């Protein structure tokens, strides 16, 4: 059985990449060369018709959508402990965070990074970006309130949701008010980034710490 992750450094592929390193599974990384718009090539569109990164190939399974890939990896390798046991309260909280992170801040980042996709008039682009930034700020405030003084999103239990949050915190490093300026989010990011598996993924993707 062969696992292959189509990735680009720092993109949404970082979440499954960190998970694969946490799991310790054998896998192959396949670079999607965004400099050449390879995510829109005919070959890549066969894997993901949306032309977006990442894609996971697991034998004859070809999977797009970051959160789906993350949930699949957590289920396939339960011994890695990246998700609580099915049917428990913790598992329900885990689903809440995975779904929230993918359909709220991750989706909002799309408007912040690609504001032109959200406007038909070039003059409106800066305003679209500012509005996305304001919404992201509110979203991170809510996540910070929910995290409180917990060690991880699920309290004292580490999960793939913390890896997801680290990736999203990192994406905001160029924002006027980066998520890391919120003390408990910064502390969580530091804890997650210190994990050997995360360090290994960062090294391969050329992501520098502590200024990530
Ligand atoms: N909902 C998708 C979004 C993926 C996404 O937007 N990926 C970005 C990189 S982080 C991408 O492929 N951007 C290049 C493009 O849209 O052409 C997922 O989670 O997989």
Task: Characterise this structure.
The chain has 212 residues and is an alpha+beta fold. The longest helix is centred in the middle third of the chain and has 25 residues, at 89-113. The model has no long low-confidence stretch (mean pLDDT 97). The chain contains eight helices and four strands. The chain has two domains: 3-80, 3-Layer(aba) Sandwich (Glutaredoxin), CATH 3.40.30; 89-195, Glutathione S-transferase Yfyf (Class Pi), Chain A, domain 2. The protein has helices at 14-23, 42-47, 66-76, 89-113, 125-147, 160-171, 183-193, 196-205, and strands at residues 3-7, 28-31, 55-58, 61-64. It binds glutathione (GSH).
Overall residue-averaged pLDDT value: 97
The assigned CATH architecture of the largest domain is Up-down Bundle
Low-confidence stretches: none
Specify Rg, calculated over alpha carbons.
17 Å
CATH fold name of the largest domain: Glutathione S-transferase Yfyf (Class Pi), Chain A, domain 2
- H-E order: EHEHEEHHHHHH
Give the biggest sheet. Answer: 4 strands, mixed
Q: Helix amount, in percent?
A: 40-55%
Number of DSSP E strands:
4
Distance N to C terminus: 34 Å
Short account of what is shown:
With 212 residues, the chain is α+β, with helices and mostly antiparallel strands. It has helices at residues 14-23, 42-47, 66-76, 89-113, 125-147, 160-171, 183-193, 196-205; strands at residues 3-7, 28-31, 55-58, 61-64.
List keywords for this structure.
Glutaredoxin, alpha+beta, 2 domains, 212 residues
